[in-house]
Amino acid sequence: MRVLAVVHSPDAGPELFADVLAEDGHELVEWDIRSRGAPPTDVDAAMVFGGDQNVGEEVQFPWLHEEYDALRRFVDVGTPLLGVCLGAQTLAHAFGATVRRSDVTLAGFYETELTLAGRADPVTGVLPERFEAFNANGYRFDVPTGAVELARGPVPQAFRIGERAWAVQFHPEIRREHVLRWFEDDSTPRSPEEIARELDEKLDGWQTLGRRFCRAFLAAAGAG
How far apart are CA 37 and CA 54, in angstroms? Predict the structure, then answer.
């Protein structure tokens, strides 16, 4: 398959997912939405990753409007879609849900539980019923009206719109190095040293789940 990766910054791309795509013989096409213009349309699936920007900052980042339109088009035409962190928030906003600042900024691994629908879902259902998911976000989404909630944690963690569009607040694609770059700023809630210790303890297991999750999305995309 030809898979589009929509990126918002150089340190929030497909990362581990790029390895999975290459290993399984898929073609990855990266598109930095900040460059404006129209996204490639000759793709079989799309993934939208994180970034420093937030829903509600459209004056500063006017291309967010273009992203909302692109996400609605992907869903309308049935292109399999996966939104991660900011990508999940923009998908939620594009379909009418509220996205707002969280009461607490999340940084690290947090207990997460699949809903009954999440356990039956072809993508999230490959994850354990309860697991620790890596989050790095100061904003959260509400689940859009008509969407199916798939996972819950300290914030809503996952939903599906229709049968072909998934969104996760957590980060199944992370690598150690690029995560530590997210926490170099002194304003972050935890130090790089704290995050590094937690990653050393838990990242191997989380990447195993991340690979499994990515392959489940690709299988679901290919099945259509």
Answer: 20
Domains and CATH numbers, the chain: 2-223 (3.40.50.880)
Query: What digits encode the pLDDT tens for the residues 185-216?
Result: 756 778 889 999 999 999 999 999 999 999 99
Tell me the per-residue pLDDT of 69-92, one tens digit each, with 9 for 90 and over.
Answer: 999 999 999 999 999 999 999 999
Rounded distance between C-alpha atoms, residue 212 and residue 40, angstroms: 26
pTM over 0.70: yes
- Report the distance separating Cα 45 and Cα 48, nearest Å: 10
List, for residues 101-143, the tens digit of each pLDDT value. 999 899 999 999 999 999 999 999 999 999 999 999 999 999 9
CB 51 within 8 A of CB 88: no
Q: Which two tokens stand for residue 72?
A: 């609605």
What CA–CA distance (Å, rounded) separates 33 from 199? 29
Sheet holding 45-48, edge to edge: 27-32, 2-7, 45-48, 81-84, 165-168, 156-161, 148-152, 99-114, 130-141
| C-alpha to C-alpha distance for 156 and 81, rounded to whole angstroms | 18
